[in-house]
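#dry-run=false #mode=assembly
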Amino acid sequence: MALIEAKDLEKTYVAGEITVRAISGVDFVIEPASLVAFIGPSGSGKSTLLNMIGCLDPPSRGSLVVAGQDITGFSRRQAARFRGEHIGFVFQDFNLLPVLTVFENVEYPLQMVQNWSKARRRARVMEMLAAVGMADQAAKYPGQISGGQKQRVAVARALVTNAKLVLADEPTANLDRDTAGRIISLMKKMREEFATTFVFSTHDPRLVENVETTFVLEDGRLIRNDLFTGGAGHA
Amino acid sequence: MLNIFKIAFRNLLRYKRRTLLTSMLITLGVVAVLLFIAVSGSFKAMMIGQITDSMLGHLQVHKKGYMASVDNLPLNRNLNGKQIDKVRALLAGHEAVQAFSMRIKLGAMFSNFKETTNIRLNAVDPVAELATAPLLVDRILEGDPDGLLQPGEILIPELLAKGMQVKVGEAIVLVANNKDGSVNGQTFVVRGILEGISGPGGRDGMIHIDDARSLLRLEEPEISEIAVRLHDIAALPRVSAELQRELGSATNKMGQPVFEVHTWEKISPFFNIAKMIDLMTLFIKIMLVAIVLVSIMNVMIMAVFERINEIGTIAAIGTSPTRIMGLFVMEGFLLGIVGTAMGTMVSLAAIAVMNASQISFDFGRQSGLLLAPTVRGADVVNIVLIVIAIAVIASLQPAWKAARMDPITALRHV
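#status=ok
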């Protein structure tokens, strides 16, 4: 069963008297435990599509099923609960909470979203920090670690709830070449270890080289679907 | 909840200077209110004590209609023997009553054998009067205050003494109209000069109640008013209501009530000053509320504005709107707690210093009254609860704004 299935997806924004069609007639399927990238020029609709998959922005039309649930009609509260249970996020600017330590940042979704017990939280957080190679930095605050380390922590935070889907918006954009490479490797490793699907929105060719499926967007339309593992195809 | 507390606390520490300034503003407000309550409360309590303990008593019982015509000192509206006995029995058996004094109030002509003028007089039993108005002796400016007075002696108001040039030990004559219209005169020796105070009866002279009976040729026991002193003035509303209930049931042959009971508040104009003090306290409290409301709302609006991106992040990873709201309300709550705690400590310290400094003040003709500011625990709790409640209320709007924020817009915010 597909992890994500979008049919005739459309997103329009109304700004005054102008209606902007950000996404139009998009269909795609993403399988579990895959690495997928949405690419395209700025304004092509990559981030809008990621936001819709992540229950942050409802589609204007069409159907979008994620993890077996049609998310198109979710209320704010339902969407928040769904995100907390099924989706992890990795941001371009890392977006760690500066007042929390590395440990507490990773712990946050378990405590504030899923209400895990303290003992379970501790074990799970340490497991994830060890997996991303940050266990020895657990007591530090985000301001005391490097950009690459912050993104590792962000990956750990995204995966700590056993999320089967991680949405990453330009995850390597603010990292140097070597660090970006390490983060890409880390995410591939996490995919292998936890069978997690990573969906990226990116311009970074290094990242695109490492995914299995690439959806190319232009002016809100899906113009190509390249399946690297199985050869190139068209949407 | 503990995690919300932890995050809110750390966010406050993140902006130390702003948190400190806001807390200090709240502290200042709390200090202003508590000190005002303490000082004005002390002033009020002292003034009430002066008025009730040197003249009025805490409450008074009269025959119905007496107070309406008290300016005329009517002799035909006195309580008779049976009525006096009823009141005496009631007061003597009441646990809250410390003492009571029966008084005859009368008007007379006062002559020093050279000049004649009018005088208003309270005729009292000295022992009962001193028990009911213990500060009365402090009003005796000249003459022996011990035992107040004996039959044949008179305490005259200071203005009369000055005007008529009468000195302690001199003889004077009082001539009074009796109830039946006849006139009677009697010689008295001036025992002392009585300080005048503001309020009803504050410039009256004083004679022994037995002298009043003979001067007025009263054959039956008659009393104009009964002044009552309670063990604790805080019991005044309860005791007054009980006496009203007990005595109010007594009616005359025409079915009208026989007695009227007045607390000092109904008799003395100072009660209006006391009410003014209460009103000023209310306004100071309103100012405190405004200070807390504006300062906390301002700081929380800034906090939300500065952390839009963080709000977007926690919303994106699934934090419910209720919890996001809780994070910001908790910050406001903590600011309120910190400001209140500091304000209460500073206020208590300032009150202790003021008490140690023995600050004195004058009130009317009384000088050197010592200020003894105190603040009741109930007042502190009241202020603490008001400040914390307002702090939470002031945080609600910014917190609501944060909780309702669109995650995408918030995440895009730089």
